[in-house]
Amino acid sequence: MSVVLSTASVPARERLAYWHEAISQTYDQLASVRLEVSTPTDVPYQGTLVADHIGSVRLATTDSDPLQVRQTTRGASGADDDYISVCLQDCGHLVIDQNGSQALLQPGALTLFDTNRPYTVTYPAAFRMHVVQIPRWMVGVREADLRGLTTAPVRADTETAALVIPFLSQLAAKAGSHPPHLGDLLARNAADLLATLIAERLDRRVPDTGTDAATTALRLRVKAFIDRHLADPGLSPQTIADAHHISVRYVHRLFQTEDTTVSRWIQHRRLEACRCELSRTGRSIPAVTAIAHRFGFTSPSHFSRAFRAAYGMSPREWRTTAHHSSTL
Question: What is the domain extent for residue 37?
């Protein structure tokens, strides 16, 4: 169900303070940092924020008067570190200052945004913007690769970008109208498209080292394939190699730079997917065994041992802790 936050019924002198709380409520990690919200005019501020989720993907659409938002401290480490934030500009434009660089985001473009590092975002005129937050495990991109793309504007200047930008924009704009039973499938599609777009941008960013860029892009495609097939108990280096027309030996080489093996990566992704599902709240919550089976674990005892080894507690203990934290 969508959450609508609006300044319409708030006294004029309290609206900026209310908007600060609205932003913090929507993007949990911002509640723990120093955030400054200001407006360039004396006209009473007006803004509306609609937040929703589709499967494991978070979405928010903001309609707002001119605004400036400054985060002056580094974000606290937590659950929101596991999300990749995508900003899509619908109307108006914004200027982002982060990591020592400045970027202009115009209508029809998107950018990847890091909410855990200090930044200043300026909206000089009224605007409409969508934010899509996708769990990092669903995209399978390394932090080092992602950092180089942060705040860089992405326009619909390739066939891939021309496909991804409208899809994510419509996904956010119509979040409340998507049938619940299609939520996980739409979330998966969004993650796959974003992974493809990131792979394309990495190829374009380092043209003089084509071999490395092509390897990085292939690694992202392989990771996306793994995430799409986590439910298949038969997922293996051989099935991955066959699907990408490469040798099993080359599949193993793709993961050597990350100090892991293909099998360990598959298990890591399965555990991350289960951990995310176990943290979700709502009326219809699948049993722990059902979640394990859904992501490719055929043995409940093996799943429980692997989960405890990775996170220091059993799946049921994790669920209880996560649900208790959400009610505080």
Answer: 3-168
